[in-house]
Write a structure and sequence with these properties.
- By secondary structure, the protein is mainly beta.
- 4% of the residues lie in helices and 49% in strands.
- The strands form 7 sheets. Strands 1, 26, 27, 28, 29 and 30 form a 6-stranded mixed sheet that branches. A 4-stranded antiparallel sheet has the order 2-3-4-5, with no helix packed on it.
- The longest helix has 14 residues, at 301-314.
Length: 379
Amino acid sequence: MAETFTFGTSLASITCHAWNKDRTQIALSPNNHEIHIYSRDGNDWKLADVLNQHDLRVMGIDWAKNTNRIVSCAADRNAYVWTQGEDEKWKPTLVLLRINRAATCVKWSPAENKFAVGSGARLISVCYFESENNWWVSKHIKKPIRSTVTSLDWHPNNILLVAGSTDYKVRVFSAFIKDVEEPPSPTPWGNRKPLGQLMAEFKNSQTSGGGWINNVSFSSDGNKVCWVGHDSCVSIADATNGNAIIRCRTGYLPFLSCEWVSPTTVVVAGYSCVPLLYSLTADNKLVLSGKLDKSQKRESSGISAMRIFQSMDRNMRTENTDTVVDSIHQNAITSVRIYAGDKASASKVSSSGVDGQLVIWTVEQGGVNINGGMRNLQI
């Protein structure tokens, strides 16, 4: 099933989105300084609140499922933790990030007792609540990051953190905060505990830069890391196999987001406007295993070229200026989230993009099932 939602004609683009625990509410940013909260009302969606504490464009949103708190970060160098009051209105608490460049991404830890914020200041702020002073404070991970941090994800043990950046590298750090948690158990990534300890580092390409990193994701067991770069490659590193890297160079436009949907399968999406599934085979190869969008035309290239030429000739045009894409998303997909299930077995994922649409896709393990859904729903 593919459910398509258009959040009003005024939302030309959706930068990022996040769901609450029971998927009855969604927080999204319409490519500006605001965060819009929509609530499900039967088969309809209604605007419940607008969070406008940020001064510049919101870059990241994450919703803590169990504590029902929203964290957001923006180009104004600030992050806020939003809590819902008895009047159902969201109230912000400023986080002391201590950065001098834009905050670019944010992610709650699995235990929801801390979160990490990436930034253009070439560092990661690991934030936690200090009950003595009743505020959110941060500690920094700096070395050896040499450029903007573009994406973050947490290991299931609540300690390790993977970061991708524009210096063409993916790094796994320890984000242990002794003030709020017990010492961790050893993992295949190592057993060193201090905050900021580098556990692993991967180049996006062994021969050249390979493009900056757009998104990273830990697998459900935390033993693998997937990332997508601006070189149109999908890469997976396995800590149980000597940190070996499995890379698939694709023929698609660069991907902006990736997410595990099973222990061996990831969904990726980006400038090609279509979410794709890549799977690990028994002989440790990464191959394309499916497309979530089945709406593309199934014509041979010759027929398609002929029809394009006929259309141009009929309308006396010298070039093809058609802007309609043969897919549900009409522009780049900026964000992919799990809608139902988890990284071990996701049955649905959601995607949002520059076209202002939010699409919910049904994923069958071992295959893909896409049916017609709700389209052009005005909210």
